[in-house]
Every structure is written in C-alpha cells, then in structure tokens.
TrEMBL record:
Protein name: Gfo/Idh/MocA family oxidoreductase
PANTHER family the UniProt entry points to: BILIVERDIN REDUCTASE A
Domain of life from the UniProt record: Bacteria
Matching InterPro entries: Gfo/Idh/MocA-like_OxRdtase_N, Gfo/Idh/MocA_Oxidoreductases, NAD(P)-bd_dom_sf
Domain spans labelled Gfo/Idh/MocA-like oxidoreductase N-terminal: 2-119
GO MF term set: nucleotide binding
Length: 344
C-alpha cells in the first residue's frame, strides 16, 4: 500500500493500527508535501518516499492507496488512484467536498472497477455493527438522537500515541467575527461530527426534510447544533477542552428502546466501543472487541482488496456526504447570522 499524506492521522492512528495488522498490509511508499515529514515517517515503517502522487500511483508495488491529505485534495486523488487501476482505495472522510465531486468519484470507480472505502471509522466499529445486526425495527421508533464529543485537542492524544512531526499550527478563533464562527462550525461538522453523521442518518426517516434549529461555535473549540427531521430531534455537541474527562458518546432513544454507544477517544487504540441496547426492559451489551473502528475499516479494506464487495456502496457514501454537507453549510450559515445579529 501507499499513503498520500503523512500528517498526524497517519502518524498517530493509521501506522500504529497497521503495526497490528502486518499479516494484511505492508507500507511500500509514503508521499507528503513536506519532504522532511515524508522521509521521517517513511523511515518508521521501512517504506520509500514517493516525491509526487504520480510517482506513488505508478509504483507497481503499491496495490492499495490510502488518502490522508487535506480535504480539498481528496476528490482529485481518489479519481487519480482509480485511473491508476489499484486494487482498492481508502480515503479519509470526507471523500469529496461537493455532491458533484462525489458523483464523479462514483462514476470513475464504476468505470475502472476500483472500489472505494471512506474512513468514517465508527461505521466499522465491531460493537456498533453487532448492535445494528441485533436491533430489528428499533430505528423506526426513535425520537431523539445525540452525538456528544468532549475531548482535549487532538495534540493531547497524538502525542500519547507517537512523536508527531509537521503538525499544523493552531490559531485561536475570534468568536465575535461572524466569518470565523461560520468557518469553525463548518470545520467542526466536516472534521469531527462527520464521524457520527452516518450513524445519525440511520435514524432519519427517508425523504424527511432536515431543519437546523440552532447552531453555534463553542470556545475554545467545538460546536452545538440542534436539528429536527420530522418528529426526530437531533443534537450534535462537541467541546475541545482539557478541563473535562474525555468522552465520545452517541445515543438514540425511542419510546421503549434505546441504544447508548461509548466510543472513547480514537487515538488511544483501546478497542471497540461498548454499546448498550435496551429493548422493552431487556439490556444487551456489545463489545469491547480488541479492534476499534480504524482496525475494522482496515480489515474490511483487506477483504475488498482481495475481491469482496464493500459493505457501503457508492450511493450510500454519496448520501452520507450529502447529509453532512447539508448540515455543515446550513449550520455554518445560521451561526454566522446569529453572530451578526448579536453585534448589529
């Protein structure tokens, strides 16, 4: 496999995960826009440095391509990897920044026969998948969904996992500036909430119009977004602060059933979520599996590269992206207008 982008996610999540999956994958080449970072990270796994994307894609030893570059490059790189005829592609979320890009990717994937997986790791978590297989008609009765993420900034966990090189500088936001607030909300949804949005979409009735009721950026980092889809209330909350105990919690509540998912911070490599499924007074607990969602996506990638059909078809990936973009853009616009009105 070859990796495009050697930033903190590659260094602190993917390479430690791959170190436990060496019977499936060998890193052959790494490319990064910062040559010094590429050299150092490649040396950790005995890979060569690819000076350009084209060089990596032309390497016959690279059978699978993993895309961990900034969001704006994903569509171009996914399409190029498909055109190169690789066996499979894993792209970090989001795999595109517009529905049109996503549709083009799906068309090229179908044309070339190269399957694509998107790294929304919670959709591959073994405990989540086990609960989904067991819950029957539960989603139809859900009236409330919450995603709550309370974490120190990523650097706290990245430094716990490895020595991170080339970390982008963090710039504090001015929360009185409508444009900066809008940017924070948009980035929060597409960078953090997007991990849980495919789970949220599981409970949204098909064809239901989504309304953003409230949207705000939280200082020093985070967001609070309230949505409504018909009779379904949705709350998305994230706070990036070192003042509280880390927590990544997802829940869906119905009249006589509920599901509660404790994912835990992904960087600590502590296995799967713990899921509690309560149905009519009976509780079933799933997890903790030795593998987390990141390992789950890599193991599925190995299956797909060997010829298996991806569990998430292209149409699902496109609709997941469309759902995330709708929330991100609408919430960003509402947050901007709210700040403008407050300072008018």
């Amino acid at each position: 496999m070859g990796i495009l982008g050697a930033g903190p996610v590659t260094q602190a999540i993917h390479l430690p995960t791959l170190s436990r999956l060496q019977e499936h994958f060998t890193v052959r080449a790494i490319m990064d826009v910062d040559p010094a970072v590429a050299v150092s990270v490649a040396a950790r796994v005995g890979a060569r440095v690819a000076p350009t994307m084209a060089d990596l894609l032309e390497d016959p030893a690279v059978e699978v391509v993993v895309i961990c570059s900034p969001h704006r490059f994903h569509a171009e790189q996914v399409i190029a990897a498909c055109r190169a005829g690789k066996r499979a592609i894993l792209c970090e979320k989001p795999f595109a920044m517009t529905p049109e890009e996503a549709r083009e990717i799906a068309e090229v994937s179908a044309e070339t026969g190269v399957p694509i997986l998107v790294g929304a790791m919670h959709t591959y978590d073994p405990a989540w998948l086990a609960a989904r297989a067991a819950w029957g008609e539960f989603p139809a009765g859900v009236h409330t969904v919450r995603s709550s993420i309370v974490l120190p900034p990523n650097a706290y966990f990245e430094d716990s996992a490895t020595e991170v090189l080339g970390r982008p500088a963090s710039v504090p936001a001015d929360f009185t500036d409508p444009e900066q607030v809008a940017e924070r909300v948009l980035g929060g949804v597409m960078g953090l909430a997007i991990h849980d949005l495919p789970l949220v979409r599981t409970f949204v009735p098909e064809g239901t119009e989504l309304e953003v009721v409230r949207a705000a950026a939280l200082a020093p980092g985070g967001y609070h977004i309230l949505l409504r889809a018909g009779a379904l209330d949705i709350e998305l909350h994230a706070a990036l602060t070192d003042n509280w105990e880390p927590s990544w919690f997802f829940e869906a509540i119905g009249e006589d059933s509920s599901i509660a998912v404790d994912f835990g911070p992904s960087y600590i490599h502590a296995g799967s979520a713990v899921v509690t499924l309560a149905e009519r007074g009976r509780r079933t607990i799933f997890g903790r599996d030795i593998h987390n969602g990141y390992a789950g996506e890599w193991l599925h990638l190995a299956e797909v590269a060997a010829g298996a059909t991806p569990t998430q078809p292209a149409e699902t990936l496109i609709e997941d992206l469309r759902f995330a973009l709708n929330i991100a853009e609408t919430a960003s616009r509402l947050a901007r207008n709210t700040v403008k009105a407050a300072h008018a």
